[in-house]
Specification:
- The chain is an alpha/beta fold.
- It has one domain: 3-Layer(aba) Sandwich (Rossmann fold), CATH 3.40.50.
- Helix content is 34%, strand content 22%.
- Strands 3-2-1-4-5-6 form a 6-stranded parallel sheet, sandwiched between helices.
- Helix 1 runs parallel beside helix 5 and helix 3 packs parallel to helix 4.
Length: 172
């Protein structure tokens, strides 16, 4: 399994009924990435839940700017800031569905995706950032955002690829 800095999930087994993909969408004019759509299809086919997490910058008008259409999702939540848990029912949705193994993908890596991952980790979720299904707002910040997740042995979770996720799905 090629996840870093540890084999994800830490307990060694992915149970699809515990798995959810958080497809984070920040305000931006472009459509969803094909990589996120493909990942959502894989997760759903394995029995996982796909949650579209719509984040927005704090302190902006309530009327959202143009946003990317979300991936086809089983659930959609709207957050009040960059963190998908802030001012939303994301935690309640995940707990009601029994989902504690989270894949994170979408846009923007160093903003909505990263903030949501840190908040999920703080709430006890086991997180894997799917790095090749994330778009960075600033390519210069991409490596730093990934490194922050992996520091201290995976302080916020692990980082992997869509190939690693596909391997996990095959083994489950």
């Amino acid at each position: 399994m090629s996840t870093s800095p540890y084999p994800w999930p830490w307990h060694g087994h992915v149970d699809p009924v515990r798995l959810a993909l958080l497809a984070v969408a920040c305000p931006r004019p472009a459509g969803p990435d094909r990589e996120v759509e493909t990942l959502a299809e894989q997760v759903r086919a394995a029995g996982g839940l796909v949650v579209s997490v719509r984040v927005r910058p704090p302190y902006r008008p309530v009327v959202p700017p143009a946003q990317a259409p979300p991936v086809r999702a089983d659930r959609t939540v709207r957050a009040a800031g960059w963190d998908g848990f802030h001012g939303s029912d994301l935690d309640s949705v995940l707990r009601a569905e029994g989902r504690d193994l989270l894949l994170l993908a979408g846009c923007c890596l160093e903003l909505g995706v990263h903030s949501t991952m840190r908040a999920a980790n703080d709430r006890g979720y086991e997180c894997l950032l799917v790095e090749d299904a994330c778009t960075a707002a600033s390519p210069d910040l991409r490596q730093g955002a990934l490194s922050t997740i992996e520091m201290s042995g995976g302080i916020f979770g692990a980082v992997g690829t869509r190939t690693a996720v596909a391997t996990l799905m095959e083994r489950s």
